[in-house]
Amino acid sequence: MAPFDIKPLERFVAPGKNATIKKPHEIAHFSFDAEHQLLPFSTDSLRYYYPPFFPAANGEVTKDSINLSHGFDSFQQLDDGPDEHLDALLDTIMEMEKRDGKRCHSDVVTWRGMMTKVRFPQPDRGKRPRSQTDLILPKIVTAPFDTLDGFEMNATLFQHAQLFTRYIEENHDYKLEDKQRQFAQKTKPGMPSQQLMSYWGYKFESLSLLPVPWAEASRDLVENREADIVNNHAQYCSVVRTRIGSTSVVLGGEVDAVLGAKPDDSETPPRWVELKTTLQPIDNKPRANYERKLLKFWAQSFLLGVPKIVVGFRTPNGLLVNLTELETKNIPMKVRQGLQTWDGNTCINFSAAFLDFLKQHIVGEGVWRIQRSAKSDVIEVFKIRERGTGEILKAEFKKWKEELLVKEELLAKEVAEMLGRPKT
Question: pTM of the prediction?
């Protein structure tokens, strides 16, 4: 077993020597349709941001305040019971390699979410829990300032020629057990259920999204969103390449919306929008919790290159009372000027150090568990299978990698023979 100590945090404070993060660049994308079927390189489920209509009340409840509980009885919720592993991400990478005729290599391949999960005292469920596509990478980024939450991930290494890639996914059994514990918590008399609070985030998205750009939307489509049946089966996901410190990373994650339209030019960054809901801060305690929520918002967004976050503030019983827009890059400064509950540079330095640690310890064949117990200051990495890749990598993906290697070797041989031919 290899332990990685989270504390003392001073180890990850390096003024003037902070680890760098390469700006995320989209290399692929995919959609899940209304039946949650995978569509590689499809924008069918891409949605467009247009703010919801509600009276400007400066955070006060009025008779016209939007009730986020509306439509809960007809909610068409995706069953997250089946373990989807990394399948959608790997299928899209495989399709990209077939299109481009070359391999997509990085030190780590994972979902965005594994770097950012964080929990807070008296958790606010106003933003829906993400699918498996968003439950991996953010857990690592937020770990230095997450004092309560635990997590479990599974990882394996796959060698392609002389290149090594670590594939990391969430331990699905742990995720389901954690969800059951959350929903089993008793709510105070008169308070909404955990399921209803989870729905509020989906409802806020439904109120804020259009299936076509605003310029192409009819007036009825824009104005009648409150009556739409909420369905979370369809998703649009972006696949980006980035670098954290010395570790190259390819990660996929769900994108809520784009502002305007997605550029046709792949070199122009899309103006992605992340949608969140949270309790309206009233005094210092909620404000401290809000700053900690900003940690999760920031980590999820910067990892995928999302520049804007729209936060819907709500009352304890789910009435939408205000909106605010946040620029992702400005959030760490906002916290430094506030209660200073966390530090962005520390998070980045910690993430870079931990990813280096994983590269040193996840070597050879087998499957590893990456585990942090609740309230623990140590992340443990240990092997749970001596051979194979478990269910992390599907057989089709490994077979394709082997075929690609043979193609690359044949091509290299042909090039070498051409270069070695005598001139005539």
Answer: 0.90
